[in-house]
UniProtKB/TrEMBL annotation:
It comes from Flavivirga rizhaonensis. Residues 1-21 form the signal peptide. This is Nicotinate-nucleotide adenylyltransferase. Keywords: Signal.
């Protein structure tokens, strides 16, 4: 009976310690092919902000917050004053995302800075990283968008990967090209 009990305790300790050492995710195969992301379609297609930032394959956290930004009606807000030209800075917080959006008097989005932490990355990006760094685990990520009306969108993916005690910080633009 002592041997059975001792064996069960040893197996339990081994299973627990082994489970804690497993990485979150890694891909060791290098034969996965990807395709480029395409724009998503919705009722907001005419909105310049939406046309610039909306991409298929983006995390639901990102699309939900962007939808909230698009649906926000400045004119129904108590601080809105149509008698004078002004800009309004509105902050949206939702789940792992934060958006600081600047609206003009007409309710048009003229600028935004969005930051998302630990979101689901577009499929192509983790595959690309896994090909370059096989058997490395994804530890955390940050996705930052800077939108300015009539200017290029600046998007940055910052991803921390690890393998054992070694860690690397990788940065990619919106086309998944590495930034050093």
């Amino acid at each position: 009976m002592k041997h059975v009990f001792l064996t069960l305790v040893v197996l339990f300790i081994y299973a627990t310690s082994n489970a804690q050492q497993n990485d979150l995710a890694f891909l060791s195969k290098s034969d996965v092919e990807t395709t480029h992301s395409i724009k998503r379609r919705t009722a907001h297609n005419g909105n310049p902000y939406f046309r610039t930032v909306a991409i298929y394959g983006t995390s639901k956290i990102v699309t939900d917050l962007q939808q909230e930004v698009l649906n926000f009606n400045l004119k129904n807000n108590a601080v809105f004053d149509k008698s004078e030209k002004a800009t309004y800075r509105i902050v949206f917080n939702k789940n792992q995302g934060k958006a600081v959006v600047i609206y003009n008097t007409d309710g048009t989005i003229i600028a935004s800075k969005e930051t998302y932490k630990n979101i689901k990355l577009p499929y192509e990006l983790p595959v690309k990283i896994s090909k370059t760094y096989p058997e490395w685990a994804f530890e955390k990520n940050t996705y930052t968008l800077n939108y300015r009306n009539n200017k290029n969108l600046k998007a940055l993916y910052t991803i921390q990967i690890k393998k054992g005690n070694a860690k690397k910080l990788l940065k990619f633009n919106d086309r998944f090209q590495r930034i050093d």
